[in-house]
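re: the backbone from monday

yeah here it is again, tokenized this time
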């Protein structure tokens, strides 16, 4: 009997070590998923910011050219056609980029969606082991 106790406690400690190793591995994996989610969100925000800057530039140029168009409306020749065409191009480009940026902001994925899904699976597996 005295031999069974040390062997039994050694088995218990081995089981606890295995459990701790498994928990550490799970936490490590979840932290990696969390960091990937954060990186994806950062890249998405930078992309939207760049599009907003392009939209602001195009809209600013469009307004500037539209102002020049109004000023040039009193001149004669084909200056109106050239200025009007450029103003239209910049305004249309700015509006298009602004629309894409708004769409990206409205359809953004839920933050940490992959991490939350994996944690939900882990919780279900721990609640209902099979």
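seq for it, each position gets an aa:
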């Amino acid at each position: 009997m005295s031999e069974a106790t040390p062997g039994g406690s050694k088995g218990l400690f081995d089981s606890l070590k295995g459990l701790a190793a498994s928990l550490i591995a799970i936490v490590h994996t979840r932290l990696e998923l969390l960091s990937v989610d954060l990186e994806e969100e950062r890249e998405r925000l930078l992309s939207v910011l760049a599009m907003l800057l392009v939209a602001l530039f195009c809209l600013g140029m469009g307004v500037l050219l539209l102002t020049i168009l109004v000023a040039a409306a009193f001149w004669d020749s084909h200056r109106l056609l050239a200025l009007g065409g450029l103003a239209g191009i910049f305004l249309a480009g700015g509006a298009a980029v602004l629309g894409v940026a708004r769409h990206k902001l409205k359809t953004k994925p839920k933050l940490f969606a992959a991490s939350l899904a994996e944690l939900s699976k882990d919780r279900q597996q721990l609640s209902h082991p099979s």
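Residues 15 and 21 are 10 Å apart (CA to CA). The longest helix spans residues 4-72.
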